[in-house]
Every structure is written in structure tokens, then in C-alpha cells.
Amino acid sequence: MIQQALHHKFEKFTAPAELKRAGLYPYFRPIEENRDTEVIIQGKRLLMFGSNSYMGLTNHPKIKEAACKAIAQYGSSCSGSRFLNGTSQLHVELEERLAHFVGKESALIFTTGFQTNLGTVSSLVGRHGVIILDELDHASIIEGSRLSFARVLKFAHNDMDDLESILKSLPKEQIKMIVVDGIFSMEGDVCPLPEIVQLANHYKALVMVDDAHALGVIGENGSGTASHFGLTDEVDIIMSTFSKSLASVGGFVASTKEVIDYLKHNSRPLIFSASIPPSAAAAALAALEIIEQEPERLDALWRNTRYLAKAVRSLGFDTNEAETPIIPLYIRDNHLTFHFTQRLFEEGVFVNPVVSPAVPGDSSLVRMSVMATHTLNQLDEAIEKIEKVATELGVFVERNEGKIV
Ligand code: PMP
Fold first, then answer.
1. Is 331 helix (H, G, I), strand (E, B) or coil?
2. Where is the Aminotransferase class I/classII large domain (predicted)?
3. 107 plus 202 within the same structural domain
């Protein structure tokens, strides 16, 4: 019955099967062992350049110990929503620490980063307001906007003239909220926050920044995009996730006490979903403590980032100028992107193919991400293999005599 009812959908859904037939299917690969910078898949060791664990902390003994201790004290799950039986002391402590870390009055933990955006963006601006998005904002921001019933307008990526023309066209008294990624998740570039804040002040719009990829990465001690630009007070709402630098799972939003209190009692993705287990809160707390107490890890992340960015640029790759731990290698062809990823996998380097709809059709790319814990040997090994596979497949834009300078 279900086959017949959904036949029209399944009929057009051929891409994964085609990739499998071509031996290029890159998704849902079970990892047998994870050591942050290296993983075991199908019994084989791979260098990990496709993880968001920027600080490389998921195997840190203090974090593992904190998670185990939380399981011993609270069990494996809260078995309920934050609103009812799903708030442990660890959740409350983590919220206080996070608010302090990003420089806001109050914070609220959601079950994932995705739900944080869903539950924040959808709850604050209603059907009479306007949500203004960068066209490359994360999917969770787009879904949150849709749920809000507000009018949703998009400006061209990081294009401040386009943002201004949208703001100018809207009635003064209408509620407007600009939502941007701090560091864009696929391209790795940073939003022009000073210009955004200036326009927002002029046209009376609220500003929300998604710091999923910026927390632990930029700003004082890794406290995010607003801190990086010295604009913490000018940004109204900051959200981020635990699934990247904080070595756990979950998400949070930080803002004024009133905003957080409103979300606590009105945000449906918060109220009607189970909270993160205390072990996940304990892991994030321990990671935050390590990030605050060991700033040399941030230095290592940036040293590795600059090293890899310089190497891929001098190899002649089409990449960006931003130099953040997210390093895109633009291939601009879906098939070649999958082929490049698969060949690297065979050579022992794990990277992620990013094709439409995650990025516009002509921008398909291989996304590499750097960790603080990558060693120079690991970086060199990856660079050597990338050069080998790129030469084999002819994906360089311009050769710089093939030498890393
Ligand atoms: N925002 C951005 C910019 C992201 O890249 C992601 C995840 N990739 C999220 C939100 C959602 O976070 P999570 O994976 O913790 O749900």
C-alpha cells in the first residue's frame, strides 16, 4: 500500500541508488572507532577532516569522565522535557556558564542546535513580522522562519547593499529580525557583523547570530562572532550548539532574561521534546572548562587552519580567502565532487562532499574541517593525498608549480 501511495515520490528519488551503483555513495558510513583526528571505518584507519569537533575534545579524558560520572548520578536519560522532569542541576549550571561565556544575561539549552534555531526563530517573530536571512543561512534557521508564519526575505550572501535595500523597503514600525550564521557552515566565511549591526540600528531591526561554527573558534577565548567584533551588546540573540567545539550534543540560545523566560514558556520545540541527557550536559560543561582554561588549544586550531589553508591555496585549489577551520575546495561539479571524496576515502582521508541543496548548484565543494588536535604529520599526510587525488582527477584551477609555499 505505502509503495503505491508514495510511488510518485520514490520514482524520482534515484540519486542515492545511482551513486551506489557508481561506487560513490558517501553517506551513513558506520564508524567503528573514533579518536577525533583518526577513525576506523571498514577496519581501515582514516584521517578525519570531516568532523566539526574543532577543538578535538571528544576523547578528552576529563570529558569522558564527566559524562560517566553524570550517568552514575542521573542515569542515562532525563526521560522528559526541560519544562517538566528534564532539567537536572547540570543543565542549570551549564546555562549559567554559557550565558557568562558569551556575555549575555541568560541562556537556555535545547535538545539540538537545529531545535534551538527552530524553537527560537519561530517563537520570537510572529505573522506580522519579517525575518531577514542571508541566503546561505543554515537549514534550521530557514525551517524556524517557516514555522514562525512571519514574512521571510533573503539577501544575497554577505551582500550589505542587498540587505539594506530589503530593510529600506519595510515599514518602520514592523518587527524585523536579521538572522545570520557567524561562520557559514559550508563555505567557512565570516558574516560582516559590524555592517549588519549598523544597518540593524539604523532600520530598527533585531540581530540574531548562529554561532554553531564560531563558538570555541573565534572571539575572546573562543566566545564567538559577537565577541570577535567587540559587538556582544549589539547582538540581541546568540545561539550555538554543543555538537561541534563542545564535544557533545545539544544547543543553546543566549539573550536577555526576558527573551529566555519567554522562550522557556512558549517555544514548542523546547517544551514538547525531551532534554539532552545529563551526561551530554556534563560533557559540554567539561569541554567549556577546558576551552576557558587552556587557550593554547585555540592557538593550535589557528596554526593548523593557516597551515592547511595555505597548502590548498598554493596547490591551486579554488577555495576562499576567509581562513577559518572550515576549508572549502570548490569542485563546482556534483559528480566530480563525489568522485574526489571517494578517492580520498580510498587513500585514507575522510572529507565531506557538499552538493545542492546544501549549497547552490554551481558551488558543489569538498568541505574540509581542521581540528586543534591534528598533528603536523597528519596535515602533511592529508595534503600529500589531496594533491595526488586532485592531480589524478584534474581538479586544480591553477598550478603553483605544485609546491607548497
Ligand atoms: N546551525 C548551523 C550553522 C549548523 O551548521 C548546524 C549543524 N551543522 C546547526 C545549526 C544545527 O546544530 P546541531 O547539529 O547541533 O543540531
1. coil
2. 46-386
3. yes
Match 527573551 to its residue by C-alpha cell. 259
Backbone angles phi, psi at 18, to 5 degrees: -65, -40
Ligand 1 near 369 CB (within 6 A) = no
Please identify, by atom number, the ligand 1 atom nearest to the C-alpha of residue 181.
3
Cα–Cα distance between 101 and 238 in angstroms, integer? 11
- Which of 228, 261, 293 is the last residue in one of the domains? 293
Task: Tell me the catalytic residues.
Answer: 185, 213, 244
Render pLDDT for 319-339 as a digit per residue (tens, 0 to 9). Answer: 988 789 999 999 999 999 999
CA distances from 105 to 19, 236, 256, 396 (A): 49, 11, 5, 48
**101-111: per-residue pLDDT in tens?**
999 999 999 99
Structural domain containing residue 200: 61-293
ipTM of the complex: 0.99
Same domain, 21 and 107: no
Decide whether any atom of ligand 1 lies within 6 Å of the 210 Cβ: yes
Residue 97 lies in a domain: yes
